[in-house]
Model the fold of this input.
Amino acid sequence: MKARIAAGVAGILLALGSAGAASASAALPYYNTAHRCVHHTTAYCGWTYHKKPINKTETAKCRDNTHSYSRHSSGTCSHHRGVAIWWK
Done:
C-alpha cells in the first residue's frame, strides 16, 4: 500500500516538474533587439506596427501607459489593466 502511494506521489511530482519546465521555456529574451515578438494571446506586437520601445529591455507597454520589464509573459501588466503592446 505504501509503495502504491509513493508511486502516485512520484507521478504527481513528475507531472508538476514537467509543467514547471514548460513555463520556464516561456521566458522572454532579455533584450528586444530581434524586432519581432513571440506569440501572445493578448495585445499586439509593437514591431508589426512600427512602434519602438523606450529602451532595449522593455518587455511591454501596459494599457495605463506604464512600462513593463517582466522576464515572463505570464502576469505582465496584471495590475495595470493588461498589456497594450508587446515588444518581445
